[in-house]
Amino acid sequence: MKRNKRTCRVIGTWALFLSALTILSLGCAAMQPEKPKTLSMTDRGTVLFMDKYEFKRPPANWALLRNLEGGDFEIGFLLMEKGNFPSQTTFMYDGEPYGSSQDLENRAKFYCTRFLFNSGVEVRVTKQEKATVGGREAIALYLEGENPNRSEKAKSKVYLVKKGNRIISFVCTMWRPMNGTYAQEPFDYFETFVQSFTFLKKDFYETFEEELNKLGL
Predict the structure, then answer these.
(1) Helix H or strand E encompassing 67
(2) Is 203 left (phi over 0), alpha (psi -120 to 50) or beta?
(3) Contact 88, 78 (CB under 8 A)
(4) What is the Cα Rg of the chain in Å?
């Protein structure tokens, strides 16, 4: 009988302890700031992404792509199109394009050696020109390539943009089977996305550079 009473007391103590933990965890969760929506509309015909960027997005049939834990890009869109695989188009903002040079020309040369490298597509630059994106100096690259072994081809437009002491990029790539035809409309949506893209907050690198300047470094 004494053993049963002791067992009941132990169980009761653990139940109270677990209840307290549950209440505490719920309280902590309630105190956490509400996370911003991934995409929210504005009255300007644009959307906000995580309160970090503002831009005009493509139509609703373009799926949102996002990578919040590092990787090749942070945000982009995907359109699966009619036709044989791989009839699709993607475009994205990438804050860390291939290379390390802060010179646009040199960065472009290295970038082209790595672009679509893992896809097996042999890429060639069909055009390169100076451009302006958001008032910033940029280079626009037009690329095309094929992978005969997989009977597919790709067409891309890339902007490498000078942002402070860094270079960022915007990339659009259209995939087609070898006998497929390219379309212009997805590239038009990409152009609208790029030219409307606005940075709402300073990124880590800009803040770091400001702190170095304050220290005279």
Answers:
(1) none
(2) beta
(3) yes
(4) 25
Return the sign of the alpha-carbon dihedral for residues 118, 179, 85, 173: positive
How are beta strands 63-66 and 75-80 bridged, if at all? Answer: antiparallel
Q: By the 8 A CB rule, do 217 and 210 touch?
A: no
d(CA 102, CA 80): 35
CA 213/CA 192 separation, integer angstroms: 35
Q: pLDDT under 70 in the chain at which residues?
A: 1-36, 68-72, 204-206, 208-214, 217
Query: What's the chain's average pLDDT?
Result: 84
The edge-to-edge listing of strands for the beta sheet with 63-66 is 63-66, 75-80, 88-94, 166-177, 152-163, 136-147, 122-133
- If one counts every other C-beta atom within 10 angstroms of the C-beta of residue 146, the result is 17
